[in-house]
Amino acid sequence: MSNVPQFPAGSVLGYPRIGPRRELKKAIEAFWAGKTSADEVEATAADLRRRTRTRLAELGLPTDVPAIPSAFSFYDHVLDATAVVGAVPARFADLVTDGGLDLAGYSTVARGRGDDLPLEMTKWFDTNYHYLVPEIGPETVFSYSSDRPVREFAEALAEGVVTRPVIVGPVTYLALAKATEGSPEDFAPIDRLQDILPVYVQLLSELAAAGATWVQLEEPALVSDSIEVPAERLLAAVVEAYGVLTGAESRPAIFVAAPYGDLGAALPVLAATDVEAIGIDLVRGDLPTEAVPGLETKTLVAGVIDGHNIWRADLDAKLAILERLENLGAAAVTVGTSTSLFHVPHTTEDEPNLDATLKSWLAFADQKVREVVVLAEGLTEGREAIHEQLLEATDAVNSRKTAPGVVRPEVRDRVAALTEDAFNRGDFETRKKAQAERLDLPPLPTTTIGSFPQTPEIRKARAAFVKGELTAGQYEDEMKAEIARVVELQEQIGLDVLVHGEPERNDMVQYFAENLDGFSVTENGWVQSYGSRCTRPSILWGDVSRPAPITVAWAQYAQSLTSKHMKGMLTGPVTILAWSFVRDDQPLGDTANQVGLALRDEINDLEAAGIAIIQVDEPALRELLPLRAEDHAAYLDWSVRSFRLSTAGVREDTQIHTHLCYSEFGQIMGAIDGLDADVTSIEAARSKMEILGDIAAAGYPRAVGPGVYDIHSPRVPSEAEVTELLADAVKAIAVDQLWVNPDCGLKTRRYEEVTPSLERILAATRTVRATL
Ligand SMILES: Nc1nc2c(c(=O)[nH]1)N[C@@H](CNc1ccc(C(=O)N[C@@H](CCC(=O)N[C@@H](CCC(=O)N[C@@H](CCC(=O)O)C(=O)O)C(=O)O)C(=O)O)cc1)CN2
Ligand code: MET
Ligand SMILES: [Zn+2]
User: Fold this and answer.
1) Which ligand approaches the C-alpha of residue 508 most closely?
2) Cα gap 465→514, rounded to integer Å
3) What pLDDT digit, counting tens, does each position of 639-669 carry?
């Protein structure tokens, strides 16, 4: 490109798309329920996009140069890329029409139908967002199949806003894909790079024809060592892909964004291509220290504002980074966010009940946009131009250091006084014997992961309680009635180890945050986790302790209803950290030990109340695993230690369970072993128990419950299917190591699915027990 169009001095990589009050979630769920038409959902979506553009312009992003991203999605941006390149799996081919996938077809690919499984869902880098994994085989036909990005660009332009279309880049798209079932052993989706590029070339040409001056291609795969494509191969793919794309005859200027971490060796490779701009993550990634050849012709989009956490930035320090970057020799340095802002809530202004001091420390998406705009002004006009804002930001950062509750000597002293004993439970074989005697369980004990369906009635009761329409007593009675129903159902079905069903929890992390000191929670701080599902991550701002028992009364009540064992149920320290916004002023490991100690108190109280089995969930253990291999050991050390700290205070005959999901477990087998839990339940049904191979190979000595029911799908498994999974499991590992359970909690499912599924699991278990 001889004349590179202007890139804005400040811009953001992306913005929340679910809507300030979850408008998109409500619209699309109503559509799935058959209560609204596709046209109505489209209208809601168009309105949301318009409100986003208006809001971003009000906050100071320009509309005549492409500062505002066009990055909407109905469900998932990786699925959107699948729709654009036409890579819809064969089992859904009938849903593709001339116009590509309509909203109903798109929803079906995401959610499955009958025996057609949906695309697999997996963690998006080290976040609590989940994307739909593309399935690519040697035969996949790529063709330009959705003009949505073009239409959404045109929609904004018609209203006078020049946006920057955002789409997953070709290298990341293929690097994150999995090979279609039945592909040859040596096939990898990245082998299809040459074939997918013409589709991107066509998309670029259509965007240019519509008037787009810049396009943003997202390439986060380049910052991670955890994807299957070897590093060399990935870098070669960058050279090939961006050689072809930059050579396209008609195209917008190309901005390659690399959020979530350090580009490392990929930076010089990218700089040597002819792309016009590169976005680097300067929150997670390092500041390059010397000039990078090729950068002199490029715009560097400096991701200095954290898209992944909610602390107000130290603008002075950020400006200093930007000033240093100007010495790297790039054609221009502009201000950006480290990642899209869709990992943070819309605005702190919609939190009337949040403590004012705490609020002054925070920046949600809208406040971050302001930070970007201010820094851009400082960079172009000079420090003096933003003098006031720099002072204000510094004040906020300083106020955090000395505010009450942030540093509490009694909490610190307790952590500092811990000895190595506090992290060790002693010999497993001894524990195993003591527990077998106390618990008296049959072979292949059956249990569930904790939650039972969160019915509309439960949610209504809680909403009424929050609004003050139900008293605490009335709410408690309703939850107790629900617990009693769930216990009775489990007795009827014949499960061996029961749960109380978790009706009282709004969320498995938020609930604990509400009951611990050092945390605050939001009212409207929704963040998309997958599809239409959202969470309100809690804010961990101070030293953590437990003012009073949290779950003990519920567990005792539930135990009083049955002579079977009632499992105590807690969320573990690593997961509480992973799904909250965590203070950034001390190492995560220190914070994790504070949470670990608070949970240890709870676990010891459950034990004292007569609960013999206690489960401590750690589904996010894999999630926080650093993207670069060199950082793994340090992470695994502090994460495993905090779990052990929480669980090592119990007697030998108290059985500790843990639960993990959403993982490729192979990568963290060592950590699973390190947790030293007596029983570990893991998601396994969709991958047909592949994990058992890893477990057998590792010689893992403790018990495991590989999931036999995929709870992410509305599908009810057949008894034969479950029997087969269990028969496989019995062949793979010793019977006295095996438990029988679903993949995960049942809270997102309905009783129509849950009851028959559990009945079949019990029937299958009886069949397999009879063969032992
Ligand atoms: N934090 C977190 N991360 C996680 C998981 C998780 O469970 N928690 N699980 C994994 C998968 N991710 C998930 C994320 C969210 C949900 C989920 O079910 N979210 C619910 C909201 C849960 C919640 O906060 N519920 C609240 C508020 C519910 C609500 O929307 N209430 C209505 C009113 C209800 C009524 O009147 O009927 C409202 O506020 O408008 C409650 O129960 O109290 C949803 O999006 O629908 C499931 C899985 C990985 N990451
Ligand atoms: C995402 S892991 C969920 C574990 C929790 N005990 C539940 O059953 O919902
Ligand atoms: Zn789970």
Assistant:
1) 1
2) 15
3) 999 999 999 999 999 999 999 987 677 778 8
Q: Are 448 and 495 in contact (CB under 8 A)?
A: yes
Kindly state the percentage of the chain with pLDDT values over 90. 92
d(CA 760, CA 762): 5
Cα(449) to ligand 3 centroid in Å equals: 7
Q: What is the mean pLDDT of residues 716-736?
A: 94
**Which ligand has the shortest distance to the CA of 28?**
1
Helix or strand (DSSP H, E) at 255: strand 253-258
Nearest CA to ligand 2 atom 2: 619
Q: Are 706 and 692 in contact (CB under 8 A)?
A: yes
- DSSP H helical ranges for 494-560: 510-514, 552-560
Going by C-alpha positions, the residue among 76, 84, 63, 203 that lies closest to residue 142 is 84
Is 23-62+165-402 assigned to CATH 3.20.20.210?
Answer: yes
Indicate if 428-770 has the same CATH topology as 23-62+165-402.
Answer: yes
CATH of domain 428-770: 3.20.20.210
Judged by DSSP in three states, 340 sits in coil
Whether 506 is in the pocket of ligand 1, judged by its Cβ within 6 Å, is yes
Look up residue 593 and give its amino acid: N
- Kindly state if the Cβ of 535 falls inside 6 Å of ligand 1: yes
The answer to whether 632 is a known catalytic residue is no
Look at residue 2 in the predicted model and tell me its pLDDT. 66
Which atom of ligand 2 approaches the CA of 571 most closely?
6
Tell me which residues have their CB closer than 6 angstroms to ligand 2.
Answer: 449-451, 508, 569, 617, 619, 659, 661, 744-745, 747
**Spatial contact of 735 and 443, defined as CB atoms under 8 Å apart:** yes
Neighbours of ion ligand 3 (CB under 5 A): 619, 661, 744
Q: Point out the ligand nearest to the CA of residue 577.
A: 1
Strand partners, 70: 165
Task: Compare 117 and 194 and report the one with higher pLDDT.
Answer: 194
Mean pLDDT (whole number) for 728-741: 95
712 burial via Cβ count (<10 Å: 0-12, 13-18, 19+):
buried
pLDDT at residue 475, rounded to an integer: 98
ipTM of the complex: 0.98
Ligand 2 geometric centre to CA of 28 (Å): 25
Q: How far apart are CA 254 and CA 299, in angstroms?
A: 10
Query: Mean pLDDT score of the chain, rounded to an integer?
Result: 96
Ligand 2 atom closest to residue 448's alpha carbon, by position in its atom list: 8
Pocket of ligand 1 contains residue 524 by CB under 6 Å: no
Residue 513 in contact with ligand 1 by CB distance below 6 A = no
Domain ranges of the chain: 23-62+165-402, 428-770
Known binding-site positions for L-methionine = 449-451, 502, 617
For 317-361, write each residue's pLDDT tens digit.
999 999 999 888 899 999 999 999 999 999 999 999 999 999 999
Among 447, 441, 444, CA closest to 741: 447
